[in-house]
Amino acid sequence: MKAMRTVCLLVGFSALVALSGCVVAAGPTVYVPSPPPVCPDGYYWSPGYGCVPAPVMVAPSVVYAQVNTQYLSLRSCPTTKCGILASLDLGEQVQVLYHQGGWTHVFVPTRGLEGWVATKYID
After folding, report:
1. Percentage helix, strand, coil, to 5, in the chain?
2. What is the structure's pLDDT at 44?
3. What is the bridge-based pairing of β-strands 103-108 and 93-100?
4. Are 67 and 88 in contact (CB under 8 A)?
5. Residue 102, by phi and psi: left (phi above 0), alpha (psi -120 to 50) or beta?
6. What is the DSSP letter of 89?
7. Residue 74 CB partners (closer than 8 Å, separation 6+)
8. Sign of the alpha-carbon dihedral angle for 21, 26, 28, 34
9. CB atoms inside a 10 Å sphere around CB 33
10. Which residues pair with 44 in a beta bridge?
11. How far apart are CA 39 and CA 36, in angstroms?
């Protein structure tokens, strides 16, 4: 009788578990985004826009000027209060980088120096 009672309890418990909907679940799902589609040459993938044309990089034009006076001071900043880096000769060529007020930021390719000169002394 005791064995029959144990069997009934086991069958009843198994039926209860089966009918209760208990399910063994796996761990959390990890989202792995799919790689973007391959774009044709000259295009790149932009999320939300798709394949868009790649920007065209245009090199800035190089502007050169010549020193129009003898012993032009190449300075470390655009003011006469800054130190003199070098003295440039009449006719020496400089690459113009940009202007600020009455000063021009230049690169002297023959000397490998960069500094400031008064704009009125270069052509």
Report:
1. 20, 35, 45
2. 84
3. antiparallel
4. yes
5. alpha
6. P
7. 84, 85, 86, 87, 88, 106, 108, 113, 115, 116, 117
8. negative
9. 6
10. 52
11. 9
pLDDT in tens, the chain (123 residues): 666 676 666 666 666 555 555 555 566 778 887 888 899 988 888 888 888 888 876 667 899 999 999 999 999 999 999 999 999 999 999 999 999 999 999 999 999 999 999 999 999
pTM of the model: 0.54
CB 98 within 8 A of CB 105: yes
The token pair that represents 23 in the structure block: 């399910």
> Which amino acid, residue 64?
Y
Question: Residue 73's beta-bridge partner residues?
Answer: 87
In 10 A of CB 20, how many CB atoms? Answer: 8
Phi-psi group of 10: left, alpha or beta (phi > 0 → left; psi -120 to 50 → alpha; rest → beta): alpha
Counted residue by residue, the chain has a size of 123
